[in-house]
């Protein structure tokens, strides 16, 4: 029987952590891009576009991420399309992240005083110019803390991708446990690594919220 040292266990978990970090970054960046598009649809003057974005957001917020992962991985397989686990995981998390970020940002845009819209419109700005030069810069101040805070949920959401065979940190924990028969040690280390990833993000969100609130009051 092969003996596994603590370093052997930790090294294997850290190797898998790379994929957790990479998947989190891809999901957050991709979700941010899609979410920005949804935001513009959500605040559009056209009712049909607002309804489309609203139904998308409600669909992805109202269904479990686990189910979305299953559909992305197994659903396309019903049509003869072979989807790799990493592609299904990335696609599902991007679409899921986009729904939440779009709604977070919509709330931040709506927090900007309506007078700002009216003032920029009186200067002859179009809708996109209003958003780019007047509304988004102000909404950004409000949006940063909740956006950073939501990134913690994205990191933790990657753990569910193990169910479709994507080998990230939690999946690696199961594999290493089966090889070492040391579940307490392995999952204890897994928990510590997740904490090391998420705690700085949570703390950053709190610090940013305090700083931006103070800056806003001083202003």
From TrEMBL:
GO BP terms: amino acid transport
InterPro entries: AA_ABC_transptr_permease_3TM, ArtM/GltK/GlnP/TcyL/YhdX-like, MetI-like, MetI-like_sf
Domain ABC transmembrane type-1: 17-205
Keywords, alphabetical: Cell membrane, Membrane, Transmembrane, Transmembrane helix, Transport
CDD domains, per database record: TM_PBP2
Membrane topology classification: Multi-pass membrane protein
GO molecular function, one term: transmembrane transporter activity
Any one cellular-component term (Gene Ontology): ATP-binding cassette (ABC) transporter complex
Tree of life domain: Bacteria
Location of this chain's protein in the cell: Cell inner membrane; Cell membrane
Transmembrane stretches, start-end: 20-43, 55-79, 85-105, 139-164, 184-202
One Pfam short name: BPD_transp_1
Record flagged with keyword Chaperone: no
Similarity section: Belongs to the binding-protein-dependent transport system permease family. HisMQ subfamily.
PANTHER family linked to this entry: BLR6398 PROTEIN (PTHR30614:SF34), MEMBRANE COMPONENT OF AMINO ACID ABC TRANSPORTER (PTHR30614)
Name this polypeptide is given: Polar amino acid transport system permease protein
Lineage, top ranks: Bacteria, Pseudomonadati, Pseudomonadota, Alphaproteobacteria, Hyphomicrobiales
């Amino acid at each position: 029987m092969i003996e596994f040292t603590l370093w052997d266990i930790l090294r294997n978990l850290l190797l898998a952590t790379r994929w957790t970090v990479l998947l989190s970054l891809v999901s957050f960046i991709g979700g941010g891009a899609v979410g920005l598009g949804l935001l513009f649809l959500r605040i559009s003057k056209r009712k049909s576009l607002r309804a489309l974005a609203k139904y998308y957001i409600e669909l992805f917020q109202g269904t479990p991420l686990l189910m979305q992962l299953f559909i992305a991985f197994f659903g396309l397989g019903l049509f003869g399309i072979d989807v790799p686990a990493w592609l299904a995981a990335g696609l599902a998390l991007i679409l899921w992240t986009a729904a939440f970020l779009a709604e977070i940002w919509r709330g931040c845009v709506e927090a900007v005083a309506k007078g700002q819209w009216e003032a920029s419109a009186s200067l002859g700005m179009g809708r996109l110019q209003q958003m780019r030069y007047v509304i988004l810069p102000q909404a950004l101040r409000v949006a940063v803390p909740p956006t950073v805070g939501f990134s913690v949920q994205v990191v933790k959401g990657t753990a569910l991708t193990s169910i479709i065979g994507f080998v990230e940190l939690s999946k690696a924990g199961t594999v290493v446990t089966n090889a070492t028969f040391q579940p307490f040690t392995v999952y204890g280390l897994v928990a510590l690594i997740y904490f090391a990833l998420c705690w700085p993000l949570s703390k950053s969100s709190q610090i940013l919220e305090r700083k931006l609130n103070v800056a806003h009051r001083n202003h």
